[in-house]
């Protein structure tokens, strides 16, 4: 589980060593210094590239698995075990919550409900949805689209970040049908969301009741693979 993280760490250390070696006055021969450091740099870059490729492969493998589950509704026991293994591996990379990275639109491609998940979440979690972050306002907007986007289930959630955990409070919830808005009685409910993994196009989160959610950027290449 820690092999990818270790490879990145080793590559980073070697890269720093390459730079230090290139600048060291102890090596008198400029030709030797240039030749050796150039080779070492190529090796470092290859290791970093290999580690990044490994992360990309994990994400694509995860998307391939969940793409057969009907957004999680038809997840098998074996599939769940494989999904958990990949998520655990990604989590060890330490790429958690970051406001600059999370800001903007995110499309839901997979969700897994727990026994304790809210009933409304269980009903709508396998529909086309988004969880879009507005970091300036410190809120994320949950949107579920039904009947070809003619009906929307909405929930705005204010958050306060504590490390990779977002302490959350629902500030608005309702169903929008054309110009009609029907409020739902969830305002003020609290919970938290753990950011297990986050990069520019891919994020994995886990709710305080055990639900697991996978989102991608709507226009990314990964969204076309989901």
From TrEMBL:
Chief location: plastid
Domain of life: Eukaryota
Subcellular location: Plastid
InterPro entries: PAP, PAP/fibrillin_dom
Keyword flag Transit peptide: no
Pfam families: PAP_fibrillin
GO annotations of cellular component type: plastid
Sorted UniProt keywords: Plastid, Signal
Signal peptide residues on this chain, from the entry's feature table: 1-20
Positions of the Plastid lipid-associated protein/fibrillin conserved domain: 59-158, 173-214
Name the UniProt record assigns to this protein: Plastid lipid-associated protein/fibrillin conserved domain-containing protein
């Amino acid at each position: 589980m820690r092999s990818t993280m270790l490879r990145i760490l080793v590559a980073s250390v070697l890269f720093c060593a390459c730079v230090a070696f290139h600048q060291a006055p102890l090596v008198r021969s400029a030709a030797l210094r240039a030749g050796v450091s150039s080779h070492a740099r190529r090796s470092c870059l290859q290791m970093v590239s290999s580690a990044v490729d490994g992360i990309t492969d994990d994400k694509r493998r995860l998307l391939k698995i969940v793409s057969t589950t009907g957004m999680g509704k038809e997840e098998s026991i074996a599939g769940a075990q494989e999904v958990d293994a990949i998520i655990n591996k990604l989590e060890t990379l330490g790429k958690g919550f970051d406001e600059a990275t999370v800001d903007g639109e995110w499309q839901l491609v997979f969700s897994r409900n727990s026994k304790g998940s809210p009933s409304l979440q269980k009903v709508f979690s396998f529909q086309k949805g988004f969880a879009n972050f507005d970091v300036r306002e410190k809120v994320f907007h949950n949107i579920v689209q039904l009947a070809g986007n003619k009906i929307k289930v909405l929930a705005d959630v204010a958050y306060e970040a504590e490390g990779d955990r977002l302490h959350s409070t629902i500030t608005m919830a309702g169903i929008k049908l054309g110009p009609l808005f029907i409020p739902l009685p969830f305002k003020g409910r609290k919970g938290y969301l753990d950011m297990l993994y986050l990069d520019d196009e891919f994020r994995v989160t886990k709710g305080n009741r055990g639900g697991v959610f996978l989102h991608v950027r709507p226009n990314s290449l990964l969204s076309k693979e989901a």
